[in-house]
Amino acid sequence: MEKSRVVQLEKKEQGLGFSLLGQQDGKRIVYGVAIKTILTVGAAYDEGSLRPGDLIITVNGVSMIGISQSKALSTIRKCSGQVVLTVVPGSKRDASTLSSTEKRIIKLDG
User: Fold this and answer.
1) CA distance 105 to 101
2) CB atoms within 10 A of CB 41
């Protein structure tokens, strides 16, 4: 399992250019949020290192672990200018297809 890395994005008019997927175990939110898709416009596409399945650990120093997808979206939408993400590489597949075992491994590594 790879370690976390820092990705710096410049938020543009089109936004950061990715969609999110909440990661949870039943009703308990434990995994934070993952990148679901990278849009073809926006900072994430231009920067080039983010992939579907990558887990977002922090946004500008604010932890995304254990929060809902809507709270994560609210936090990200409030960002302007340079946005610093700490991410853990996830599965090469879409985050929605991660197995519960993969989610536990990613949680333990982060």
Assistant:
1) 6
2) 12
Residue environment code for 80-109, b if the CB has 16+ CB neighbours within 10 A, otherwise e: eeebebbbbbbbeeebeebeeebbeebbee
- Hey, what's the torsion of the CAs at 75, 105, 89, 61, to 10 degrees? 30
| Structure token pair of residue 99 | 């197995």
Tens digits of per-residue pLDDT, 74-96? 999 999 999 999 999 986 544 44
The pTM assigned to this predicted structure is: 0.74
The 3-state DSSP class for residue 108 equals helix
- State how beta strands 28-38 and 55-59 pair: antiparallel
How many helical (H) and strand (E) elements, i.e. helices and strands, does the chain have? 3, 6
In terms of Cβ atoms closer than 10 Å to its own Cβ (0-12, 13-18, 19+), residue 24 is middle
Residue type, 67: I
Task: Give residue 24's identity as a one-letter amino acid code.
Answer: Q
Contacts of 100 (CB under 8 A, 6+ apart): 25
